[in-house]
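Subject: Sanity check before I submit

Could someone independently write out the structure tokens for this chain? I want to compare against mine line by line before I put it in a report. The sequence has 349 residues.
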Amino acid sequence: MTLIGPQGRQLSVVQRSFVSLHDPHLAVLETTIRAIGWSGPVTLSAGIDAGVRNTNVAAYIGSDSTHLTSPTFTRVGDTLLCEVETRNSRIRVATALRVDFTGADAARPREVREAGRQLSTTVELELTEGRPATLTKTASIFTSRDSAIASPGTAAVERLQVLAGDTEGELHRHEAAWERLWERFAITIEADPRSQLVLNLHLFHLLQTLSPHSADLDAGVPARGLHGEGYRGHVFWDELFVLPVLGPRTPHVARGLLNYRWRRLESARAAARATGLPGALFPWQSGSDGREETPHELYNPRSERWMPDHSRRQQHVGLAVAYNAWRHYQVTADRDWLAERGAELIIGD
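---
Independent answer below. Compare away.
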């Protein structure tokens, strides 16, 4: 795109970004600018915003949208480090950021500024007409739920040190990882090109949320994937629709989703006993510990009133869980998993 500033000066801006499929802890945002018809200074800022809030769903107006504690900012050499905790579950989250500039000379030394929940680095560059200058932000993110780390902050900083600014190399590794995965999932159909494009776009969205990296996570299938704030990231029964895709191609990913249910089987049994029923009663909306997360009331942005939410009365999730467990065995013939976990999901008691 082209930005127009004072005196009609034009600045070409081109961005590319990726979250690495090779290393899910890494994300890169590259911004290339070029002065059109002028030369002179330009000021660029990049940083970390720990004040993000979930405010994109109108129906959640009035509910708490701030889920992170106040951040702790640290400088480790040229790396900026932000450490926070989630307010309820106390999961520690660390984001390390490295900012590199190429293609232009700095007019003055960098400045690092902290303002509230934001930490940024600012530099003034001397642009030459037609000569591109590039700002590259490389971020590394770890949480206290990650394995084989000493601490999230230490792991995040060390990962950037290992990368050592090799963003092009990481991009190639990211592309190679997608190519290997896409060989399993890409679909070719005898139809118009748009239909095939739409179908593969849906597969792409699915794999952004559920990939080999999620196999060992204690996580289900969030109804809005990793991108939407709707339903607050809760797990419904969407694995019923995606396991037929994942099971034959990545059975370990499918098994991970079923293990999420198995780990919460005791909560489901307790819910069944509380209603005088045998077996297991899985919740309509599931979260971290398997309790029913469906709110009792919802805000209606059209009527601007609160209304009862009766969707918790949908008690068919357990049937879907049992069906998924049996279908997984039929696809994989994994008798060990069936004996150790799958049978319990099918029987419930």
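---
OP: Matches mine. For the report I'm noting this point. Residues 210-347 form a domain with the Glycosyltransferase fold (CATH 1.50.10.10).
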